[in-house]
Amino acid sequence: MSAPNAMHDDQITPVEVPHAPAWQAYGAALLPLALLGVLPVWACLLLCLLFGLGVRSVLWHEGRLLISFLIVGAAIVGHLLGLGGLSVALNSGGLGNLLVLYLAGLLGVGGLSWGASLLEEGRRRGLFFVLAAGLVSPQPLLLLALAGGALMRPGLDDRRPGWLGREGAGWTGKNAAWLALPVALALALAVALPRPAPLWNTSSPPPVQAQAPAEVPPAEPSARPSTLAPLQPPAPRPRLITEDVIPAPPGELVLVAGILVLFALFLLLRVIPAQRGRPATLVEWLMGAGLVLTLVLLVALAFGGAPGQEAGTLPPAQAEALAPIEPDTREATPEERCLTSFLNLVLWAALLFYLAVFALLVHTALSLRGASRRDAQAALPTTPDAPDAAALHRVRVAYRNTETALTDAGRGRAAHETPQGYAARLAADLPTLAAPLNLLARVYAPVRYGGSVSLTDADAAEAAEGTIRAELPTLPPVASSDAAE
Fold first, then answer.
1. Domain ranges of the chain
2. Which intervals carry biased composition (Low complexity) (predicted)?
C-alpha cells in the first residue's frame, strides 16, 4: 500500500510545491558573525540582514556576493575617511595594511557565500569555509556562526526530533537539560578561545618624539674588551628606481581608463533593463555598485600612493623630529631593476585590462541595444502600404474621360455592363483599340473594387486615354442598331 503513495510523492516536482522556507534556513543570517574580528559591527549586521533576505527572496540570494562586496567596500571607505581624510590615508604608510584588510574582508565574505551555498545543498563541508573565514581573527561569536551554518543545512525530512517531544507537548526538564548542556559547553569554549585584537581596530602609530641621545659613559681602561661578535648591518631593502627600467604608465591614463570602465558599466546597467522591458531593481543597482566600488578600491589601494613617496614614510611633523638621514646613493642592482620593471609591466597590464573591459562592456551594451531595437521593430504588426491617392485619382479621371468620349462618339457603356465587359465588347468591334481598352479596364479595376495603384499604372492609364481619344475621329460611324443599344 505504501508503494503507490511513494511513487506519487516522487512525482511531485519542486515547482509544484509552494516555497516556504523553514525557520531553520534563517540560520544563514548568523554566518556573518564569523567576521566580527575582521569587519566592524555595523558591517556584520548588514551582512546578517543580507543573508537573511537571501533566504526570503531569490533575487537577494542571487545578489548576495556582490552586495557583500559593496558592504565591505563601504566599511573600507568609512575607515579611510576616519583616518583623517582620503588624501591623508592614501599618502600614509598604512595603505598596505588597509589593502590586506580589504582583501581579507573580500575573501571572508566570498568564503561565507560559498559555504552558505554548500550548506543550502546539504553538504557539511560548507562549515569548513565558515570556520576558515572566522579563524582569520577568532572571536567567541564564531561558534554562533558555526551553529547557524549547521542549523541552515537541510536534513532528510522536516520531522520533529524525538528529543524535543511531540508537537504541542510541553517541555520537560529532561528536554531542557539536553538542550542546556551543549549550550553551556559552547559558551565555555567561546570564553576559552583566544581573543586577539580585531583586525579592524587598527590605529595609527603614535607620533615619534625627538629624544636626546643617551650619554655613553667612558669605558674604563682596566675593562677587558668584549668577546661578542660585532652585529652585522641589516641588508638594504630593495628600492623602486626610475633609471634603466621599463617606464610606468602615467597615472592620469590609469585614472581615465578607470573612469571609462565606470561609464561603460553605467551604460550597461541602463541598457540591460531596457532590453528586458522593465527598469532595474534595487538589487541589480546594488550589485552594480558593489562591482564598481570593488574595482575602484582595488586600484586606489594598490596603486594609490603618492608619487615620489615610498610606503612607510613618516608625516612631515614626525620627520622633522627625527635626525636627518643621509640619502641612499648606492647604485641600483639588477634585482632592483627587474623588480621595478616587473611592477611597471603589471601597471601596463592593468591599464590594458581596463581598456579591454571598457571595449567589451561598450560592445555588449551596443549589441543589446541593437537587439532590443530589432525586436521592437519585429513586434510591430505588418500593415500593407496605403494606396496612393494621387494615382487612384489619375486613373479614375482617365477612365471617366475615356468613357465620356466614347459615349459622345455613340459607343457608350450599357447599364448592365461591367468595365471589363464593356472593354471586351469594344475590343471585338474595334481591334485597333483592343490593347488600350483592355489596359484601361485592367488598371481601373482596383479603383472600382478596391486595391492599390502605382504611379506607373496611372501613367499607363493616361497614355491609353490619349491613344483612344486620338483614334476616335478615325473610327467608322456607328450603325443605327448599335446606337439604339
1. 19-155+180-192, 239-307+342-378, 389-484
2. 221-230
